[in-house]
Each structure stands twice: as C-alpha cells, then as structure tokens.
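Sanity check

After download, print the first record. It should look like this:
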Amino acid sequence: MALPLRAQIRLVEAVCALGFAHFLCAFIPFRIWAGWHGDTDKGLNADSRALRHGENIAWAIGKAVHVLPLKSRCLPNAVAARSMLSRRGVRSHLHIAVRPDRLSPADVPEFHAWLTIGPQVVVGGEDLEGYKAFEEL
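Expected structure tokens:
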C-alpha cells in the first residue's frame, strides 16, 4: 500500500533533515548551531495542532532512520525533528542530559537527547529515567 503524498513528502524531508543533522553533530561545534532552530518551548502547553505535527514528524524520523546508511543517534534525531517542527511554526525544547550513575567501559558518562512539545516527548523518549538534563544540573 502506497503512502499518501503528504507522508511521502514528510519522509523525504525527514531523510534530508537527518542527513544534515548528522553532519552538524559530527563536524560543527554545538555552540555554533545550538540556536539555529528558533524559539524553544520550556514547558508551555501545546495545542492539538502542534501535537499532531509532533506525531507526524516522529513517525517520519522513525522511518527515515532506516533509510540512511548512518547509525541512528538520539541527538541528530532530535535536531532533525526540531528543525522540521520549526519550519511548521511549532515551538519545541531540545533536552540534552547525562546519566552520571551509568558509565561506559571507558568511564564516560552516558548522554542522551530528546525533543518535547510542552510536556509531550516527540523523539528520544525511551527510558529517560535517571537522566539529568543540563539545565537541571
């Protein structure tokens, strides 16, 4: 069964946004591109239109990660979703956090990123327990 045209366009947009987000995260320092995607929403209530856009974009990002030959990572996924939401005039908040109690084999703390619209997690919402967002530290 073929996808509707809007879903196909959204999927192509997600693939492009993910590719660009991977490039940003890999080659450009965070301090340079951190503010590129407009206003953030720090806990404001989201309307049904914004949440519907969030659901549609979460679906597109979830499908697009399987198209690109790159490993799916939380930060590029959240950055791509944020840029797609910003183009639709939807305010969102990018959370970057650390889990200090869980270290990697090289004794590096575990990091995670996710995106929210108001209280609703758009991408990266799996297993957030134990993470401390940098704005909470």
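If your output differs, re-run the checksum step. Summary of this record's structure: Residues 57 and 110 are 26 Å apart (CA to CA).
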